[in-house]
Amino acid sequence: MSTIADNIELVSQRIRAAADAVQRDPNSIHLLAVSKTKPAQAVRDAYAAGLRDFGENYLQEALGKQAELTDLPLSWHFIGPIQSNKTRAIAENFAWVHSVDRLKIAQRLSEQRPADLPPLNICIQVNVSGEASKSGCTPADLPALANAISALPRLKLRGLMAIPEPTEDRAAQDAAFAAVRDLQNSLNPPLDTLSMGMSHDLESAIAQGATWVRIGTALFGARDYGQP
């Protein structure tokens, strides 16, 4: 049975191979370990194997893990849908938020970010596939939202996040991720972060410019959604 350390090495090999295939520096691509539904011990094991950045979708679960892991210098990323009543805890306990999709949420995060912490790194989630079930702003609304968020204090707009419609068709993957990259390139000033790609499509995401790949299953195994 493979260990988390083994899985991290396998995923790192995939990242390096994907970067080499398109002549990108592998060091420009960061691995975000998606630890939702996994216990704090799994995060501890991943830390021991070299990871420092962890992504969580569910606030209460994340806060519980953070409380158990205060002895480790971890960087926590919130990557799930955001309700207005959760913004204060997110602003106080995370270094990154990848899933901002409307101005109201960004304004609350800005107002509630403690002054003694660095600015909160923000990615705007874009619904590039137009799925009704997915969060994210529309491509048409992106320029105005990016401009408004850029003006908010205590936040640092870094880039875009997307979860395209799942497919095993590499050409379809490439087209969706290229659309996100083109949206980023259309913004002024330019941003430095593209959060896209998961266990099944990280190669395509890297080929189209991803700087963060959000990997859960390939690191920690299948998720048990019966767990909190």
UniProtKB/TrEMBL annotation:
N6-(pyridoxal phosphate)lysine modification, residue list: K36
Domain of life: Bacteria
Entries under InterPro entries matching the protein: Ala_racemase_N, PLP-binding_barrel, PyrdxlP_homeostasis
A Pfam family of this chain: Ala_racemase_N
GO terms, molecular function: pyridoxal phosphate binding
Domain Alanine racemase N-terminal: 22-223
Keyword annotations of the record: Pyridoxal phosphate
Co-factor(s): pyridoxal 5'-phosphate
Family the entry assigns: Belongs to the pyridoxal phosphate-binding protein YggS/PROSC family.
NCBIfam families associated with the record: YggS family pyridoxal phosphate-dependent enzyme
Function in brief: Pyridoxal 5'-phosphate (PLP)-binding protein, which is involved in PLP homeostasis.
Protein name from the UniProt record: Pyridoxal phosphate homeostasis protein
